[in-house]
Structures are given as C-alpha cells and as structure tokens.
Amino acid sequence: MTFEKQGPHNTEAALKLAIEAAREEGIHKIVVASSTGATAKKLAELEHEGIQIIDVGYARGVFGKHEPQMSDEMRQDLEAMGVTVYVASHALSGAERGLSSKLGGFGPVEVAAHALRIIGRGVKVCVEISMMAADAGLVELHEPIVAVAGTGHGADTAVVIRPAPTAEFLDSKVDRIICMPRQG
C-alpha cells in the first residue's frame, strides 16, 4: 500500500495493515515507534490477540528534549494493556550525532541513516527501532517481526524485517514494505 501523503492521518490504516501482515506471515511481535505512547496505544486498542506489541521510544536528550516524552500515566496504561515499553538512544545516531553536532562533520552511521531515508523516513525508523529492540533482547535476532513507524507523528510506514543487533547493523533484512507514503 502506498499512501498519497505522509503523516498521522494514515495511522489507523497503517496499524491495521501491520496486524494483517503479522497474521498472514505468522509473526507474533510488532515493534512500534511511539515516544509519547499514543501510537502504541492505538495499536493495542485494535484486535491483536497472539501478537505482542513492543513500544520503542527515544531516550532523553534526543532533539534537545531532556524530559521523558511519555507520561507515567501513559506508560502504566500501556503496560496494563500488555504492551512492553522500551526507551533507548537511537541506534542510527545516538553518540555519533552527539559528536558530529559538537565537532562538525558526520560519521558512517549517520550516512547509513541518510541512505535509508532515501527510501523513506519511516523505513529508516523501522530499521532503527528493530535494532534497538534486538539490542534489548525484546525480539529474536534474524527472525521476522513487523515494525511500524511514521513521519513525525503517528504511523504511515510498516515493514516485515529480520532485525540484527546494532553491532551487526548491515545484517538486518527488510523482507517486505507493507505500507509507506509516497516520497515528496
């Protein structure tokens, strides 16, 4: 599915397509980028029996924000719904962005992130959150999962991916793009 425009207005459709693809392929884990928890909550409110939802958010200090993006109340709500909440540094920037922003230039991880954005911002984030979940031991290495992300807020991209840990980044494999917006 290709959405005509990127953005949060695609969230419900993207989430439903992600669940449908997981069921079709016998996948039991969906990793979703949701720093505030709003997108993860929308996903958890849909019928997803037999599918574990893992919400991956970004750590403090990203984009100059030093406060947690998710409220304690939202975290409690998600956990009560059976959602695993995980917060970590971005796998495709983290410390490298900290160096380049202070010292100038760029490193190979940032180049890889920009190369993934050629396909789409959401695809880059799907790869990234899958590696973050793999690093944390929340998904099996090299086993298919569905990853869901968006362009800014909400969701507009979903992929089937076999994640590798960050240390083996180039061994991650995107098997299928379920949905994404047309690139502007």
TrEMBL record:
This is Pyruvate kinase C-terminal domain-containing protein. It comes from the Bacteria. InterPro entries: DUF1867, Pyrv_Knase_C, Pyrv_Knase_C_sf. It comes from Hydrogenoanaerobacterium saccharovorans. It holds the Pfam family PK_C. Residues 12-160 form the Pyruvate kinase C-terminal domain.
